[in-house]
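DATA SHEET
Item: assembly model
Revision: 1
Owner: S.N.
Input lines:
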Amino acid sequence: VTGVWIDGVPGRSIEVEDRALQYGDGLFETIAVEAGRPRYLARHLARLRDGARRLAIPLPPEALLREEIEGAAAAAGVVKLILSRGSGPRGYRPPEATPRRIVWALPAVSYPGDWREAGVVLRLCSLRLAVQPALAGLKHLNRLEQVLARAEWPGPIPQEGLLLDSEGHLVGGTQSNVFLRLDGELATPRIERAGVKGVLRGALLDAFAHAGLACHERDLSLAELGRCDAILLTNALIGVWPVREFAGRRLDSAPLAALARECLARAPALD
Amino acid sequence: VTGVWIDGVPGRSIEVEDRALQYGDGLFETIAVEAGRPRYLARHLARLRDGARRLAIPLPPEALLREEIEGAAAAAGVVKLILSRGSGPRGYRPPEATPRRIVWALPAVSYPGDWREAGVVLRLCSLRLAVQPALAGLKHLNRLEQVLARAEWPGPIPQEGLLLDSEGHLVGGTQSNVFLRLDGELATPRIERAGVKGVLRGALLDAFAHAGLACHERDLSLAELGRCDAILLTNALIGVWPVREFAGRRLDSAPLAALARECLARAPALD
């Protein structure tokens, strides 16, 4: 960690009355940095704004958030932001609190190059995600399901675990979204009942559309996953990873990953 | 607040790498204090032990937890304990961390006497709780559903909001468990899919059994709630509250509340 700023001031700790600590009452963003600049910042801020609205957390001025994130990015490989509802008395009722911003400048994460090129191994998690439309899509701080899912296997490989919701619909990985190709068509799960609407998921949907490729946001079942011929994993830090093996089955996803990266590179920037 | 101890040392803040802050990765207990002694401490510790086992958080020695809670209780009206998985690097995978204990000595909460005697008003929340057997029963730190539910109405009255799960089963209040009397029989929701297994819920189930009164843990629907003739709310701090009005309907729950308190007083103590 090269630095932490709490409400703009360098710091290392927060008071124990903070509701992020008490109840997971807040949101976060994990932002890739390229050449000292935060990537997809407009998309990260848009998701944060949507989350703040749905949780009724007053959003700090966007110019201030931009300034703090860009400042941290200048000397970081990754910037993480937590927006907590702030401190309050005991009890679930949201107080009239001042939200608290915690901004980290973190080192870059480096993954082996062949994960990106040749692909990764994907397993199926036994945990099923709960269906909660009130929270679906948000990158909120209630992450015990992801902690339990990631605890299902030790070590770095398989690189990711896939999660279904309790109704059997495909949601995504513990820390990534998933795209697949089935009968020549591209699809990614709707994120209306569980899961996080990843920033790279949004960027890739727009990039496919810009390239004239249809990619359907729809319900997807485990059976359909078993029939698909390519799977991609996406998140803001990893970018696009092809899946070379899922549940013991070999897949040739690398060409689709290369195409996805090409579409992303050609799409107009939002930032 | 009269005091906070972090791993046994007086403190006011925790480091920002703590996983309770990052992911809600931990558990808590809110313990009533009577004459300087924690009430139902054995039951609180049993629930904490169960939660630590299910989340694979190493439990600190129980004698140490007892000592710290009893120490805080000596000068408090309420003791709150958070057990966090501890600090770790970014990422959902649980690290080999040292769990962190945060113990608060808080002032007693006083409620108007007629809430306890004449009863309280209960409303029905529009939020539905997600079904997640992996977390049901635990007092974990992922509490955004309760925050959203409690935000549905302002002010102290109605005193509580009732929650169904997404399958339509009755779960309990935002911060309480619920008992009802229907066709002369006592019942309380099973807590296997959503909700918290309250300490007073457990104590009251045991107390009814000790008194020879059957109380069934079972699935309960909103229709059954509409037909019942008495509703009780329980938690460790409020004890037993009769509901005098639910969704516009008057109820005479006070005699059942008095009976419940009588059974609790006569039941053998666990502590």
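QC remark: The radius of gyration of chain A is 19 Å.
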